[in-house]
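Morning - nicotinamide-adenine-dinucleotide inputs below, output right after.
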Amino acid sequence: METLDHWVSGAAFSGLSTRTAPVYNPAVGTVSREVRLASVADVDTAVQAAKAAFPAWAGASWSKRQGVLFTFRELLNARKLEVAEILTNEHGKVTSDALGEVARGLEVVEFATGIPHLAKGEYSENVSTGVDVYSLLQPLGVVGIISPFNFPAMVPLWFFPIAIAAGNTVILKPSEKDPSAAIWMAKLWKEAGLPDGVFNVVHGDKESVDALLEHPDVASISFVGSTPIAKYIYETAARNGKRVQALGGAKNHMLVLPDADLDLVADSAVNAGFGSAGERCMAIAVIVAVEPVADDLIAKITARVADLTVGDGTRGCDMGPLITKEHRDKVAGYIDIAIADGATVVVDGRGVTADGDAGGFWLGPTLIDRVAVTSDVYLHEIFGPVLSVVRVASYEEGVELINSSRYGNGTAIFTNDGGAARRFQREVQVGMIGINVPIPVPVGYYSFGGWKDSLFGDTKAYGPDAIRFFTRQKAVTSRWLDPSHGGINLGFPQNA
Ligand code: NAD
């Protein structure tokens, strides 16, 4: 059986650690390969390679770096089907969804190709007589990226194109559950002409993550994953003096007002609730139905769910399996909790017939009505194809519910009332808002990130925030060849 190596200095690297983890094909339920789990020494080897590559890469001209980015973009676009196939095999998401993930990652590469413009400083002439001030943006050094299982290509692509374009060198620690896409992208960088050591991949679990968090030569950490780990990453990296952004979990609500177009709402709820088997941080998990819409809406959603096909992602189905057997069982367990807490299970995905191997980690779309807001089904991030309905009496009650959530990643309002939508965007305490749009992932030239327990740190992912995150600013005050001078003055400098 294949054992997936790390990638260091432009080549496969097996490292010293003998620990490995199994990588499954979730549509079959069997182990397809093993992945190495790096030790502290293996992480150090990668960091030393990235550190050695940094001076030359940071010193390369903007146009040289931009050229490599353009080539990478062309290669990724031309060969996206190859990486989509890897995503389907290891994550389980259907081919069309895998291609969508790559397309959203490509947006960030395209944004990063504009780096000469994006990383321009400012210049003020004659701030004082004969004195100019200007700012420079310079790279940080070796940057660490730690990514989750649910977007093995897109989430790393949120960070590394901009980090690399800005002159940093990178260590990516992808999820050990679906690590192959990271290695595929590393090989693509080499083909695009990126110098060896600028982009490195280290596979691993907590040991490798902690090694990055503790390593004195790692300047920053960009993390995406569950909230408890995000909080741990944020606190540990900050304590070690690193710049850190840590994006966490979510529980996204869709507020449906009585004047909404219920067919649009039902389509959107099904797409955003069950796409990628609900394993998206921007999935809709809760429909907040302002009465009297709930009964009609549930009937429309139920009819649409009846037509959904679940199965192997390569066979043209709508929805694939969950990532592991343990995760499937955990998600299915929430259906028992819902029943025990008095909710009504309208559609139960546990009995699904899948178009795929009997051993696959299947769970069908599940719709649960009258979920109590005190139930764990409402309070916890389930991260599976389970859509809850909570009925409320008014817009105000709905917004209060959303604002009392510990999470603030994404939300959506469905209405034909522009005033209500405008009020919602002002009042709701969430980082990304959709108005009649169910998964409001911002385009690549805005930045992505939530509020509250959905993001720890001060900067969001990609877009303008990423330019700030992956650079350090210098302000230079200069005076040249002015024959006059002011003489001795120990007072604080003032402009004249
Ligand atoms: P996870 O937190 O289990 O793992 C994320 C990364 O952290 C992986 O690389 C993993 O190896 C590492 N890790 C796991 N346990 C660790 C530990 N104890 N110490 C140090 N590192 C550890 O998350 P996941 O299950 O891979 O991904 C799903 C989660 O990610 C969900 O909560 C989802 O909402 C979240 N997510 C958030 C966003 C966002 O933008 N906010 C995007 C995608 C996913």
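Note: The longest strand covers residues 131-139.

O.
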